[in-house]
Design goal:
heterodimer, A: alpha+beta, Ubiquitin-like (UB roll), four-stranded mixed sheet, two-stranded antiparallel ribbon, 6 strands, about 30% strand, globular, B: alpha+beta, Aldehyde Oxidoreductase, domain 3, five-stranded antiparallel sheet, 3 helices, elongated
């Protein structure tokens, strides 16, 4: 099985779950967004589950759509609900 | 040389009203409208001492540029737009965001300014952590990007 490495940084209320730097996951090539979300949920404390459900995965350019598939290693961010202004 | 009509950014230094006003000023404009967001001393009946702003800079700047493009498409291609958000800690009265609009006439300036601040609150990756006089602090609820 070919694998990719995802490095996921957290922001806002999620920062407290970033214990020793970004979360690093090794996952199969072609995994979909929901698969990555499930892997993140598995890696984090149970107390993070509610906010994870309303948090978006993004890269530097855009929030990733639900049909996105990961074909190569990437740096991602996990964004909780926004509250700027 | 073409003068840029949009400035969108994230800053970790004090935001400047003068910079915003200067950017949207132009001889063909009859209106310059400024929106200045500041940290207030209370929220939901709790006395606030300050606010920390967390920002994902690369995407925040990309989304703010998109909002400006949308505002120009809706309200006028000639609008001059300045939208800058602060990152870091601010005490009461500190400026968290400045939106400035320069326009030939006032109506598009009001419409674009309102559009930009409302869209920023819903779409730009920025998070507020309020600090209270009690010593507690908490991240505020927001709008999901999912």
């Amino acid at each position: 099985m070919r694998a990719i490495d995802l490095e996921i940084s957290f922001f806002g209320a999620l920062r407290k779950y970033e214990r020793a730097g970004p979360l690093r996951l090794t996952l199969p090539v072609g995994i979909g967004l929901e698969g990555v979300r499930a892997a993140i949920a598995e890696a984090l404390d149970v107390s993070a589950q509610d906010i994870l459900r309303v948090s978006a995965l993004a890269d530097a350019e855009r929030v990733l759509p639900s049909h996105h598939r990961f074909e190569s290693s990437a740096q991602l961010v996990l964004l909780p609900p926004v509250s700027g202004g | 040389m073409t003068v840029p009509k949009v400035l969108a950014g994230v800053r970790e230094t004090t935001l400047s009203i003068e910079e915003a006003s200067d950017f949207v000023d132009a001889g063909e404009n009859g209106a310059a409208l400024l929106f200045v967001g500041r940290v207030r001393n209370h929220n939901l009946n709790k006395p606030v001492s300050g606010v920390s702003y967390d920002v994902y800079g690369p995407l925040a700047e990309t989304v703010m540029r998109e909002l400006c493009t949308e505002a120009q498409a809706r309200f006028g291609a000639d609008l001059r737009l300045f939208i800058v958000h602060f990152k870091g800690y601010l005490p009461i009265g500190g400026i968290s965001v400045i939106i400035a609009v320069g326009s030939a006439h006032r109506a598009p300036a009001y419409e674009a300014s309102r559009y930009l601040i409302e869209a920023l609150k819903r779409r730009v990756p920025v998070w507020k952590k309020e600090h209270y006089l009690s010593g507690d602090s908490e991240w505020l609820d927001g709008t999901s990007l999912v």
